[in-house]
Queue: 4 jobs
Job 1
Amino acid sequence: MQERLSFYKKRESAVHRLNPLSKLTLALGIVFVSFLSPYYWTPHLLILFAVIPLSLLGKVLREYINAMLRLILPTAGFLFIMQALFQPLEGVELFRFGFLHPTQESVLFAFANATRIVVMVSSFTIFLLTTHPNELMTDLTRRGLPGQFAYVIISTLQIIPQMQAKAQTIIAAQRSRGLDTESTFFKRAGSLIPLVGPLVFGSLVEVEERAIAIEARGFTSTRVKTSLNSIPDTNKDKLIRWSLIVIIIVTLASRIWLS
């Protein structure tokens, strides 16, 4: 049930065996290097030599490609079109169509930003696919993060899968009552209206039930909490985290130096 309410895919891989904080640092490190690097080609190299190899090493390439085609590329493509057409940058004009006159500089600027978005969303997609939310919450609270903050993080990671699961349940129930959800586009759009009410009110009830459940488990207790699950933190994990911190500092220094 827990896996249904998260993006996590259980695999036996080197990425899955890493400490959750190491994987979070890795995702943040890739994002920071992509946005802070002064070189135009850095995001492209990160996709080729960091994102894709991590998806292969974590055995989640199929799920990553699915997310890429359904979410990442459409979002990045929309951003690219908007910035390429409407970003007012002076330079060599490529073509003119009415009030639209994109320049070579605006296209390059839009492509660079779209690539950074691909890197950012891709790194966190792989992080979510290879990290169980419970392990992340356990490790963060063990390191001293207040339970309230850990709960907010975990709830944020789980909100989309929870909404998807609840929506599928409501759709199946409405279909059993004769609701048409597989005909023309306009009929399907109209059939969404009966789904909104149960989805919203059901989510509100679920929030209240979860609040009662975590309070019953002593969530706000100030006593030291223990866990049945032991999250390993090896020397390799520590080396990865410190190496990423050094890489981020070097990237930031090079950005300042070359600016």
Job 2
Amino acid sequence: MKAAYDPAAKFDIKVSEVEVRRAASGRMLMARIYQPQGVGPFPTLLDLHGGAWNNKDRTANEPMDRAVAASGVLVVAVDLTLAPDAPYPASVQDGNFGVRWLKSRAADWNGEAAGLGVLGSSSGGHVAELLGMRPRDARYNAIPLSTAPGVDATVAYVATRSPISDTYARYQQAEKMKRESMIKSNKTYFRPWETIFEGNPQQILDRREPVTLVPLLIMQGALDDNVLPAVQEKFAASYRAAGGECDLHVFEGCEHEWVAKPGPQTGRAHEMVKAFIARQLAAARRA
């Protein structure tokens, strides 16, 4: 029996990259693999980047990915389709495919497919929440995985930093702040516009749609004027009322992307994600 995950452990990591698939636009979506160097097999985590659905790539969350991997987790960060190439639900389809693809490939990098979790930041957190809540949605499962057609897209847990848990509330905040680039990002991604409500985690719960409620971690900056703390508090309360487990932690003195800069609160976020993973893995072992 392999040793239990210890969030305080320290491993050297090997970083490599592989191709995942070619998008309809012709862009090759890549994965960056952070592989602990040890006996293993290691628990596995899929990382989904932010960027307002329109920007960034697999490298966006590298400090967090490295920190978690160094504790003994196989972390794989994947590119998502960007909104100018294809609107919602393209990036969610990429995330769903990424879950299935990583389950089928985890053993190649000394990882365990069972108990796979997802980490998402900002718009990547929005995608991660939808993956957790709708793992069997036919639209999200639309990209076939020919090498492993029987693998499903269920995940064991979701960890997020500043997730866009209410897409319309975030759009209204952009209008209030007169942030034209953010307004444009929303209108580029949500086409037709009605999808901003259909693919809205908060409104999915408000509509009492059938959902899967995996354990959820939300880390939120208290000074965030992009995704407001009150919006996260409402979502966390709705998630719990629906029967889910949701840990919401507000980081004092922090804005939307505080984890991009080294500091005590960034270090605290790294430790919080590792501790959350440890709790989920321990619960699975007891089950």
Job 3
Amino acid sequence: MAQPDQHPGVFKRLWFRDTEEASVFINDVAVRIRAGLLLAIPLYMGFTLLDVVFGSHWVVTGAFIQDTFDTDFDGRILYHVEAVKRTFEYSRQTWILLYALFEMLSGMFKATSHLSPTILLSSYLARNSKPVWKPLQPKRFAWSIGATLIATCIVFFNPEVLATWVNQLSGHALLPTTSNYMPRWVPMVSVWVCIGFMWMETVLGVCVGCQIHALLVRMGVLKDECYACNNLSWD
């Protein structure tokens, strides 16, 4: 019968190779499964933004519709209608984005990884696959990119919150609180970048954030962690 101290918790074994290592390694199989689970969030946000940016900003009530007996240049009949300005409420999107931000941040650290439902679920789903161990540091950098893109979308859906904070801290009205100061293309690009990165991680096994991390290390911008230096054997 195996000793308990030789076999840590099942999720701990399936996500981390050994949390006591100087350089922590995580199971890339579970990471790819997790990316596939989280891909649903940017897809939902993408459809939301498509509706916001390209959808109609007016709602016809149907209370009043009258034929003008006239047509436009394309031969379409013109009507007088009663319409109201469409309003957008983003509380659901905000909570979903806050959850996604929590997922990105919790996965970066050993102490908080066990709080992530997707880490637990993806580790369980990867239990019958041979683990592929990769260092945590590049993944942490990739998830920081994801957290930045998520924070950008949160600001787009709640511009008045950031504007109020900035104006109060500066003592001046630097940002408007009655209109959205962020260009619509910014969250659109952020969402589709997230979709592209997560799709490549899930389907192709390519971590774009990790590749960017490697490039910055090669350029000398970041310092790569030396696994061999941290695991010297004195035997």
Job 4
Amino acid sequence: MIKKFLKSLFTEEDKHRYYSPYITFIRNTKKKKYQHCGKHTELFGPLRLDPNFVELEDYTRLQPNVEVISAGGRVKVKKFTAIGSGCLIIPGSHIPTVGLPQYLSRTHINDTETTIVINEDVWVGARSILLSHCSIGRGAVIAAGSTVTKIIPPYAVVAGAPCKIIATRFTIEQILAHEAILYPPEERFSRKYLEELFETNYKNLRSIGTDKISSKDLLILNQLKEEKGIINYETIK
């Protein structure tokens, strides 16, 4: 009943032109509503977003209270990525316009709408903020409470507001081993690319990851992968 009432407040034109408040109060966990929603996605409501502006690849997860504020900008989340509780994603920005008071900024006159891409195997920590024009590289870690306003390179660990690179997720050798398990050969980063990446972006930075895992935990991990249909490429000859 509440949903029907809120929906009645907006015309079809409003729904396309304005950020529609009625949408943000719906528990958006119905996968068929999304622009794209791959297999084995996990959606934990409530989610404050318009599913028409969100694309989720296979094996992605949205934790409770993730919010996307968009009047047309898109959010693309690639495989193996998880977005923590309370994250705010805004793929658009206001452009100050003479004669336009902020009170009427919901008209989105002269605003820019972009696409925020969160690449494969990224962790976006709780209550982080992703703003227009940012992009997050494969394997990156966004520390809880960070504000991202720029392009984050692959396997970076960033923190702060605005965020800055403080470490790498893995060493080069660990990345090569990690990707040999998760990705088919044609999708993996080459050693040459990683060496150039580290020389350019990560000189003298520490790595926070580990390649140690107990036999018990490894068994659990492999069982979960098998249940979800996640291919372990390392075992394929």
